[in-house]
Design brief:
Elements: E1 4-8, H1 20-28, E2 31-34, H2 37-46, E3 53-55, H3 61-73, E4 78-81, H4 94-102, E5 106-110, H5 115-121, E6 130-135, H6 140-152, E7 156-161, H7 166-177, E8 182-186, E9 194-198, H8 200-206, E10 214-218, H9 223-234, H10 238-247, H11 252-263, H12 267-274
Parallel strand pairs: 1-4, 1-5, 2-3, 2-4, 6-7
Antiparallel strand pairs: 7-10, 8-9, 8-10
Bound molecules: S-adenosylmethionine (SAM).
S-adenosylmethionine binds at residues 12-13, 82, 84-86, 89-91, 114-116, 160-162, 185, 187-190, 213-215.
Length: 275
């Protein structure tokens, strides 16, 4: 009989944030696949659980997926954990879940702490609908595209970020979010947990050398503001419209695409104007 793959959430700080079911599953499985085995060992020691550990992280995800699948096909039950929070969410695990399902292996989620949900529920921002982006891309072009999405997003937006990149990310957000409220949810569930609120500009002024872990929450854009901006931009000449995006560092192809979208016309029409 095939084994079962459990995707187990672990605490994001406070070790008491582990569910009774997670403890039961960690005790039950034959193997625990962990992002960082030394890190997970500390949690297992705290819970008095002793199990064989296999490392499974983003740099060995491809090779280790095959290994885990073979073990599951062999009848072993495996729990997958990440360093903190819910695996798969901006963490390794997605690949093994996909391949396990392709092999008709049962995959069972064991829910628990997740930084984005923990941050959102006490932020006071609209939680009816939200857009989770995870880490912003580092690649310049992809990052610009994602920032543009954030600029036009009317739902609450949630980002993950490493502490040494918080200021740089706030600098990028400053350009597009202007007066929108941003909340930094810091060190959630830990002793120094705090929510820091302000515009991107205010937060940059207040933070110096950010340490600890942060989730960034951004108030969604107001539809009326977006409509007004669109109206203003569409009253420009096409040349001015082009220059507006050029200043933002966009490439010609993308600028044409955006102008066509703003003006609700085909790209060809915009190209013709240029010729
Ligand atoms: N899969 C995990 C989850 O969803 O809970 C997140 C893993 S991701 C690699 C790590 C990022 O999650 C950090 O850079 C930070 O943005 C956020 N994070 C994790 N723990 C946190 C905490 N205790 N307080 C604030 N942010 C946290």
């Amino acid at each position: 009989m095939k084994g079962e793959l459990f995707i187990v959430a672990t605490p994001i700080g406070n070790l008491e944030d582990i569910t009774l079911r997670a403890i039961k599953v960690l005790n039950y499985v034959d193997i625990i696949a962990a992002e960082d085995t030394r890190h997970t060992l500390k949690l297992l020691n705290h819970l008095n659980i002793s199990k064989p550990l296999i490392s499974y992280h983003r740099h060995n995800e491809d090779i280790k997926t095959e290994d885990l699948i073979n073990k599951l096909l062999d009848g072993k039950n495996i729990a997958l954990v990440s360093d903190a929070g819910t695996p798969v969410i901006s963490d390794p695990g997605g690949e093994v879940v996909k391949v396990a399902l392709e092999n008709e292996i049962k995959v069972t989620p064991i829910p628990g702490a997740c930084a984005l949900i923990t941050a959102l529920i006490a932020s006071g921002l609209d939680a009816k609908e939200f857009a989770f982006i995870g880490f912003l891309p580092l690649n310049k072009k992809n990052r610009k595209e994602k920032l543009e999405e954030i600029k036009n997003e009317t739902k609450t937006i949630i980002l993950y970020e490493a502490p040494h990149k918080i200021i740089k990310t706030l600098e990028d957000l400053k350009e597009i979010t202007k007066n929108r409220t941003i909340i930094l949810a810091k060190e959630l569930t830990k002793i120094h947990e705090s929510y820091i609120k302000g515009t991107a500009e205010e937060l940059i002024d207040r933070l110096n050398e950010p340490k600890g872990e942060y989730v960034i929450l951004i108030q969604g854009a107001q539809k009326s503001t977006l409509d007004k901006e669109k109206e203003e931009i569409n009253s420009l000449t096409i040349k001015e419209h082009y220059e507006y995006y050029e200043k933002q560092g966009l490439e010609k192809k993308d600028i044409i695409k955006k102008i066509a979208k703003d003006r609700n016309v085909s790209k060809n029409e915009i190209y013709k104007e240029f010729i």
